[in-house]
Every structure is written in structure tokens, then in C-alpha cells.
Amino acid sequence: MKVKRKNKIDPNFNMSSMTDIVFLLLIFFMLTSTLVTPNALKLLLPKSASKTIEKTTTSVSIDSLLNFYIEKEKIEEENIEQEIIKRLSNKEDPGIILNAHKNIPIEKAVMIMDIAYQNNYKIVLATSQK
């Protein structure tokens, strides 16, 4: 007579718990990868339909004749960094809005962006509406 055992091991493997773990890991990595941002300046591109919602504390303008202005005051190019630092030294979460004429050499706009990056200021490039 054959006796049946109660502790019989099932030879089949259940994959449902393994797929749950894989999906949870997939969701975790998808969410965390979207939160990683590279070290880049915060910029808006010319001709945008969006509005600026960042809180900026001063504006720097460059006209077509390569004259530099902070707010409405004309500043020499050599003194622009010292003047920006002086105006933003006691501000909380300092930021700059850059108003650059569309025909200026890109080096002039990049110079202002470098000043902002070196001093940990936020910078936004002003655009015109479409």
C-alpha cells in the first residue's frame, strides 16, 4: 500500500512575485531618473509662448550697440560683474533676467551667464511672445 505524504514539494515555480519585484524596480528607476538634472543654467529660449514665473531680483540688458545696462543704468562691460555682485549680495535666492538683443554676439550673453554661474545666481533669458 502506498502512503501519501502531506509535505509534497510542488515542482512548479510561481513567477508572479518575481514580476511584481521587477515592475517595482522599473517604476523606481523611471521615477528617480527623471529627477536627475544636469548642471546647466536655467534658460528660456527665444520666441516662447510660456511666461516667466521665476522670482528675479535684477535685470541685465544688452542692446544692439553692445551697451550693458543693469535695470536702466548704463554700466561699462569691465564693471558689470562687480555691479551685479554688489546689487545681489544681500538678496535671498538671487536671480538675473537677461534681456539681450537678438543680433548681439552670443559671447556677450554667455559672459553674463558665466557671471551668474560662478556666483550661484539663477538666470533666465527673456523672450518675446510668439
The number of helical runs is 3
Order of H and E elements? HEEEHEHE
> What is the beta-strand fraction?
15-25%
CATH topology of the domain at 58-125: Nucleotidyltransferase, domain 5
Number of strands: 5
Q: For this structure, what is the CATH class of the domain at 58-125?
A: Alpha Beta
Strand order of the largest sheet: 3-2-1-4-5
CATH architecture of the domain at 58-125: 2-Layer Sandwich
Question: Can you tell me about this structure?
Answer:
The protein is of the alpha/beta class and 130 residues long. It has a domain at 58-125: Nucleotidyltransferase, domain 5, CATH 3.30.420.270. It contains 3 helices and 5 strands, in the order H-E-E-E-H-E-H-E. The protein has a 5-stranded mixed beta sheet with strand order 3-2-1-4-5, with helices on one face. It is rod-shaped, with a radius of gyration of 28 Å. Mean pLDDT is 78; it is low at 37-45.
